[in-house]
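Input (structure):
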């Protein structure tokens, strides 16, 4: 059972955003504001990671973040949904772009472009936003793919961890569905103070359109993205070599044997971890994803193979996956965020360093939750 939230629901939420923004403007006439040029039409986690970074940059610059709706292509090429339907923390004490002109007259608004090297970009942007202007609009896209894959982002991480711990919050529907998923799938959150449900591993099986995308990334000699580039993270050997085509493909679109090898290494001596949740992007236009998930499940639950691999306590007892999420009628848009949250709450997470979903999970586990580095492994 699955459909998307109604237009009436989103319209009501958008009106609430507008009214709360107007109230915020009236109550705080001394505020300074910033509006950024943001992604239009990228995937959910690409948009989310950018929004979180822009919100963080605004706060570091003592400015109010002017947020924009999320582009939701599955509802139409130019369809949008309210930010507070997903990232409630970023919408709180910020204002909607729909009322920007109520806060900022054209005379009070300064338009700028920000250009700097990847290493200098963040601090340079803060310096450009530190002036006395009431309102600043940045007209060029500053968090480029190149910047997000660079070590220039590493200097942002220590304070961004604190930002996530203080400000990150999913919307109520996402929190509610996640709790329902833990109960329905009998999965125990690593943060829970009770013993109901099974401790579990979360594995991100990124497939879908990624095979062709990984070929392009290999040709460009591209490395991991955003927080997967942090040097302290565990990357399952062999190490990534961006100048080697085979190496990029092995990490970006790994063969199923690589998944199995990693799981063998992580759980053979942990008999309490015999449940795994597989995040996948299977869909009607990507049917092979289902076949690969089925093959992976068969290998992980095979008793003879587990014995040969030295598993103490036998093979995986249960395998759950994205297709089993208890998404009710009118909740379809939230499924991807629920999967992110399930991976965040797993005892161990195995992710793909080329995927924004995986790097979002990494950020939340290590930043918002103060998790352990050893409980995250990149393919």
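Output (sequence):
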């Amino acid at each position: 059972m699955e459909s998307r939230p109604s237009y009436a629901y989103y319209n009501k939420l958008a009106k609430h955003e507008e009214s709360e923004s107007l109230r915020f403007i009236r109550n705080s006439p001394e505020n300074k504001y910033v509006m950024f040029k943001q992604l239009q039409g990228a995937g959910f986690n690409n948009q989310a990671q950018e929004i979180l970074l822009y919100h963080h940059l605004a706060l570091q610059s003592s400015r109010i973040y002017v947020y924009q709706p999320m582009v939701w292509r599955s509802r139409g090429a130019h369809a949008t949904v309210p930010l507070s339907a997903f990232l409630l923390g970023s919408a709180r004490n910020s204002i909607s772009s729909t009322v920007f002109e109520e806060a900022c007259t054209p005379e009070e608004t300064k338009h700028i472009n920000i250009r700097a090297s990847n290493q200098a970009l963040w601090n340079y942007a803060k310096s450009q936003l530190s002036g006395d202007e009431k309102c600043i609009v940045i007209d060029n896209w500053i968090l480029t793919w190149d910047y997000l894959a660079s070590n220039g982002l590493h200097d942002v991480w220590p304070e961004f961890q604190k930002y996530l711990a203080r400000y990150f919050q999913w919307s109520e529907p996402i929190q509610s569905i996640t709790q329902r998923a833990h109960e329905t799938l009998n999965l125990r959150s690593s943060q829970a103070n009770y013993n109901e449900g099974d401790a579990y591993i979360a594995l991100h099986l990124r497939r879908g359109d990624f095979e062709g995308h990984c070929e392009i990334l290999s040709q460009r000699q591209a490395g991991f993205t955003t927080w997967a580039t942090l040097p302290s993270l565990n990357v399952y050997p062999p190490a990534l070599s961006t100048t080697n085509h085979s190496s990029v493909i092995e990490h970006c679109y790994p063969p199923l044997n690589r998944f199995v090898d990693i799981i063998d290494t992580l759980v053979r001596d942990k008999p309490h971890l015999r449940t795994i949740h597989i995040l996948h992007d299977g869909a009607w236009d990507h049917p092979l994803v289902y076949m690969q998930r089925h093959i992976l499940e068969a290998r992980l639950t095979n008793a003879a193979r587990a014995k040969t691999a030295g598993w103490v306590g036998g093979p995986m007892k249960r395998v759950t996956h994205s297709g089993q999420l208890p998404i009710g009628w009118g909740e379809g848009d939230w499924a991807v965020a629920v999967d992110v949250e399930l991976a965040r709450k797993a005892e161990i997470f195995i992710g793909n360093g080329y995927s924004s979903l995986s790097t979002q999970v990494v950020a939340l586990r290590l930043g918002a939750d103060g998790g352990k580095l050893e409980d995250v492994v990149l393919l």
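Notes: The radius of gyration is 22 Å. The CA atoms of residues 175 and 338 lie 8 Å apart.
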